[in-house]
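Weekly sync, protein design subgroup
Attendees: M.S., D.O., the rotation student, P.L. (late)

Item 1: inverse folding check
M.S. brought a backbone from last month's batch and wanted to see whether the design step gives back something sensible before we order anything. D.O. pointed out we never logged the input encoding, so this time it goes straight into the notes. Structure tokens as presented (493 positions):
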């Protein structure tokens, strides 16, 4: 049917093309193809079939009457999925797993009798989710490493470029552009460690049966506990896991989802902080994100250069951070061995968390590869604030030249307040140093003023901290990802 007449009446719109249906912008607009595939229907149901194959192979190796011909038939049809038939079966049966059992059996008539033998729905559902979580983390880790690598190059390049520090977003002592970047990198390195830990801690659900007791498999193997344990081990190994959870209900503990999404939410917080800093620096005109030649900042104000990439990261990072509430609540309301109120929620939150993390990392990589620094603007802001910061150095220089500390302090207090009045009440530049130069009291140190006001003398050990941090903490953390650093990333939107 066409668009609802007059947008009223409440009839459903049933256009045949993709543009007539809602599509999540996480996939249609932003996410990378690899991550989108990991959470795709084709990958999901293809993994189900592989899990049924692993189970049959393991059961056969342990003595169940399964033939080579049945195994070969399953192997030949792993990706021969009739999605239309599966949808029709699910509509009829109201059960997605049994719909795909029937669909697989339709193209594997010889193996039909042994597909899903002894298993429950969570054998394919939960084990597939764990495989997908692992694969998703394996995609995110090199992406994050690339971002860290690009920012490390930036930090090294600007390790000794002084810039005004801010606390409470008020002018504070100087730092360097590179040292500030290391604050971002340190947070991301923590995220890298957390993602690695979350991946390495993942286990397989394995073959546990309807309530986790493995009763169905114990019956299949006529009470042979060792064969049931070996079946669990074999299937776990075939799926690429080193261990399975020793204890489960019908599902693996939903605390696992909390562990995974909590590190993604934490990554979201890091990215939000970094991109907020970049947005604030863009307002100060000190640093800007990449801006394309034909890019339009505003439809009404053609002069604008809005930090849209950083704004996108902040927007999506907020979504990522909120998603942790879903697994927290799901885990808390699972009754006994399992309730199904986890299913629909998990279909949404797990995929969205990974797709969102994928998007913000690819966008942040693009930002970090094209950051533009304006040293003259940075220096001008330093010159506006540095005179007040240099007052203690001036006092010490005067005392060394024979002056009285208290007299000097009072002189500086008066001159600094006069200069502050010019800045705040008249909108002028900070003329504190000009006033010091004009006051004969400070004549003993007039020749020292330039050196006393050298910004590099106010940055402490910032350059040394950058060098040590990059050498001892950052670069070693990136070693496992050296082969996956790749080239620059281009955003289509």
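Designed sequence read out in the meeting:
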């Amino acid at each position: 049917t066409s668009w609802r007449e007059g947008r009223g009446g409440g009839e459903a719109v049933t256009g045949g093309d993709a543009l007539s249906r809602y599509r999540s912008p996480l996939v249609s607009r932003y996410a990378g193809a690899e991550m989108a595939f990991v959470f795709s229907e084709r990958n999901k149901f293809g993994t189900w079939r592989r899990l049924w194959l692993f189970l049959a192979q393991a059961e056969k190796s342990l003595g169940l009457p399964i033939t080579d011909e049945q195994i070969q038939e399953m192997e030949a049809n792993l990706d021969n999925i009739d999605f239309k038939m599966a949808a029709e079966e699910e509509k009829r049966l109201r059960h997605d797993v049994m719909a795909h059992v029937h669909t697989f059996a339709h193209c594997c008539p010889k193996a039909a009798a042994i597909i899903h033998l002894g298993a429950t729905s969570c054998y394919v559902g939960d084990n597939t989710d764990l495989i997908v979580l692992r694969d998703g983390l394996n995609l995110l880790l090199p992406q994050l490493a690339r971002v860290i690598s690009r920012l490390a190059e930036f930090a090294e390049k600007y390790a000794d470029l002084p810039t005004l520090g801010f606390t409470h977003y008020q002018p504070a002592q100087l730092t360097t552009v590179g040292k500030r970047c290391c604050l971002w990198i340190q947070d991301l390195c923590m995220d890298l460690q957390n993602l690695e830990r979350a991946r390495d801690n993942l286990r397989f659900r394995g073959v546990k049966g309807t309530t986790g007791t493995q009763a169905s498999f114990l019956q299949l193997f006529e009470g042979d506990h060792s064969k049931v344990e070996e079946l669990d081990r074999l299937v776990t190994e075939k799926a690429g896991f080193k261990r399975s959870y020793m204890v489960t209900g019908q599902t693996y503990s939903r605390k696992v989802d909390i562990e995974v999404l909590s590190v993604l939410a934490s990554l979201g917080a890091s990215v939000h902080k970094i991109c907020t800093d970049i947005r604030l620096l863009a307002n100060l005109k000190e640093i800007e994100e990449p801006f394309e030649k034909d890019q339009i900042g505003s439809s009404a104000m053609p002069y604008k250069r809005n930090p849209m990439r950083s704004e996108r990261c902040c927007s999506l990072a907020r979504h990522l951070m909120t998603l942790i509430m879903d697994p927290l609540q799901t885990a808390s309301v699972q009754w006994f061995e399992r309730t199904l109120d986890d299913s629909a929620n998990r279909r949404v939150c797990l995929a969205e968390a990974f797709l969102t993390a994928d998007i913000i990392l690819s966008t942040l990589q693009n930002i970090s590869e094209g950051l533009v620094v304006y040293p003259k603007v940075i220096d001008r802001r330093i010159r506006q604030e540095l005179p007040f910061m240099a007052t203690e150095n001036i006092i010490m220089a005067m005392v060394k030249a024979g002056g009285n500390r208290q007299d000097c302090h009072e002189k500086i207090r008066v001159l600094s307040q006069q200069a502050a009045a010019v800045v705040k009440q008249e909108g002028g530049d900070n003329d504190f140093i000009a006033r010091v130069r004009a006051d004969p009291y400070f004549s003993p140190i007039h020749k020292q003023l330039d050196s006393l006001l050298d910004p590099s003398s106010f940055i402490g050990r910032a350059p040394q901290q950058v060098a040590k941090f990059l050498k001892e903490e950052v670069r070693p953390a990136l070693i496992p990802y050296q082969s996956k650093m790749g080239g620059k990333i281009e955003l289509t939107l």
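Discussion: The first helix runs from residue 25 to 30. The chain has 20 helices and four strands.
Action: P.L. to compare against the previous round before Friday.
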